[in-house]
Design a protein that fits this description.
3-stranded antiparallel β-sheet, 173 residues, mainly alpha, 72% helix
């Protein structure tokens, strides 16, 4: 039988909350949100639009195609899949913030600003991948799989650490 102090351990409470949050999110997303496709496509459209705007700001001639396609003229272009739209990252970030104590109005504001910043970073990721794609498909695939994954997850971790150290009331919610 487990010691009751084990279940009161803040780290165990945090891990249990995050695990429960993730399982709940997974079930809601994959059984309800994802099959509808509207949320995924909406976020992808925003990401492609922001990326196109940034690329055009730097004088790239950009093409987009039927929902999900973006590229720089002369390249094969990129197709943005559901797994690359950032929605799972939004949920992960939200779970980390909700797991810690803090003023709920401040949490909500921080979550909204965090999601906006994650979306912007994901759009920048798409910009850099589109530029890389004009040079080498192998570079594009490598950076998509490794470099940008590390950058985005590190950014989310940094946002969470900022919340824990500056805004939360120290402790698990």
């Amino acid at each position: 039988m487990m010691n009751s102090s084990f279940l009161k351990n803040p780290s165990v409470k945090f891990l249990f909350f995050i695990f429960s949050f993730y399982i709940s999110w997974y079930l809601v997303y994959y059984w309800w949100i994802h099959p509808l496709e509207t949320v995924d496509l909406f976020v992808i459209d925003i990401t492609v639009s922001i990326s196109k705007w940034i690329l055009e700001l730097f004088n790239y001639s950009v093409f987009t195609g039927a929902d999900r396609l973006i590229g720089i003229d002369g390249s094969g272009g990129l197709w943005v899949g559901d797994s690359c739209n950032g929605i799972v990252l939004f949920a992960l970030f939200t779970g980390f913030i909700v797991a810690y104590k803090g003023n709920w109005k401040l949490k909500l504001l921080y979550i909204i600003l965090g999601i906006i910043s994650i979306e912007f970073l994901n759009s920048l990721r798409l910009v850099f991948l589109a530029i890389l794609d004009t040079h080498s498909r192998a570079w594009t695939e490598f950076n998509h799989a490794y470099t940008f994954t590390i950058i985005i997850y590190s950014f989310i971790f940094m946002l969470w650490i900022l919340w824990v150290n500056k805004f939360s009331k120290k402790g698990i919610a």
